[in-house]
Design brief:
Layout lengths: L6 E5 L4 H12 L3 E6 L2 H11 L2 E4 L5 H5 L1 H6 L7 E4 L14 H29 L2 E8 L10 H20 L5 E8 L5 H6 L3 H12 L8 H13 L4 E4 L4 H18 L10
Parallel strand pairs: 1-2, 1-4, 2-3, 4-5, 5-6, 6-7
Helix pairs in contact: 1-2, 1-9, 5-6
Length: about 270
C-alpha cells in the first residue's frame, strides 16, 4: 500500500514506538490522526508531525465504539489503521486485580479488534485499505509476569491471521508485527518485576534476543506496509521461532486456497 497521501489512524501515538511511527508516517507523506489518552503530549506530538490529535481512552466502551466515526467526521475515511496501543501489567496473574486484568484485555486485544471491525466495511466498499496490528513475541513464548499480556498478544496475532483469511482476494491488506524487547518506558516498567527482568537479562546475554530501537521498528513497519508484507518479525534472530508457531496457520491457509472468503454482494 502506498503510504503517501493515506489517512492513517494511529493508536498509542504518544508512546515510544507510537511517536516514532507518527513521525515516520508523516515523513512518508501520510495524513496522520494521532490517538492517545493524555491530551498535552498528544497535542505536542500532533503539532510536531503536522497531524490531528484525537484524545480517546480506548478502554472506555462508548468512546471506543464511536472512535472511527469521530476521526472520519469532517475529514476523510481511514485508509490505514495502525493498532499500536497496549499495556503490559507485569505481575503474576494471581497478583493482578480484576480491573488490571480487564484493562490489559480491553486495550491490547479488544480495542484493536473493534477498530478493525469499524474500519473494514468502508475499506471494503472503497476497495482500498490496510490493517496493521503491533503484536509481540510474547505472544509466541512469554516470560514470568507477562501471562495476561502474552495472551492478548497471541490473540492479536491470531486475529490478524484470521483477518488475512477473511480478506483473501479482497483489496484490503493486513500486517502482523511481532516484536521482541524494545528500548522503551514499557521495558523499564517490566524491569521492575524481578522474575521477568531476570528472564529478559538471560536471553539478552545469550543473544537469543536483542534490544530493539523504536525508530528502527517504526522505519521497518512503514516499509512493510509499502511492500504489502503480511508479517514483520523483529529481531531477525527470533523470526524462525515465530514463523514455526505460525506454521499451522500457513498450512490451513494453503488448504483454503480457492475457497471464497467474505461473500461479495451485489
Amino acid at each position: 500500500m502506498r503510504v503517501a497521501g493515506a489517512h492513517v489512524l494511529l493508536t498509542g501515538a504518544t508512546g515510544d514506538i507510537g511517536s516514532r511511527l507518527a513521525a515516520r508516517l508523516a515523513r512518508a507523506g501520510a495524513d496522520v490522526t494521532c490517538v492517545a489518552r493524555g491530551r498535552d503530549a498528544l497535542d505536542a506530538l500532533a503539532t510536531g508531525v503536522g497531524g490531528r490529535p484525537v484524545a480517546c481512552d480506548l478502554t472506555d466502551r462508548d468512546a471506543l465504539r464511536t472512535l472511527v466515526q469521530r476521526v472520519e467526521a469532517g475529514h476523510r475515511p481511514v485508509d490505514l489503521l495502525v493498532n499500536n496501543a497496549a499495556v503490559e501489567t507485569t505481575a503474576h496473574l494471581a497478583d493482578l486485580t480484576a480491573d488490571e486484568l480487564e484493562q490489559v484485555v480491553a486495550l491490547t486485544l479488544l480495542a484493536p479488534a473493534e477498530l478493525c471491525r469499524q474500519v473494514l466495511p468502508g475499506m471494503l466498499e472503497r476497495e482500498h485499505g490496510h490493517l496493521v496490528n503491533i503484536s509481540s513475541l510474547a505472544g509466541v513464548a512469554t516470560f514470568p509476569g507477562l501471562a495476561a499480556y502474552g495472551a492478548t498478544k497471541a490473540g492479536l496475532t491470531h486475529l490478524t491471521s484470521g483477518l488475512q483469511a477473511d480478506l483473501r482476494g479482497r483489496p484490503v491488506g493486513t500486517l502482523a508485527v511481532e516484536l521482541g524487547p524494545v528500548s522503551s518506558q514499557m521495558m523499564d516498567r517490566i524491569g521492575g518485576h524481578q522474575p521477568c527482568d531476570a528472564a529478559f537479562g538471560r536471553v539478552l546475554r545469550a543473544r537469543l534476543l536483542t534490544m530493539l530501537d523504536p525508530d528502527e521498528v517504526a522505519r521497518r513497519v512503514v516499509a512493510a506496509v509499502e511492500h504489502d508484507h503480511h508479517h514483520l518479525r523483529m529481531p531477525r534472530r527470533a523470526a524462525p521461532l515465530a514463523a514455526l508457531t505460525h506454521a499451522p496457520r500457513v498450512i490451513v491457509r494453503a488448504v483454503l486456497t480457492g475457497i471464497p472468503g467474505r461473500p461479495v454482494t451485489a
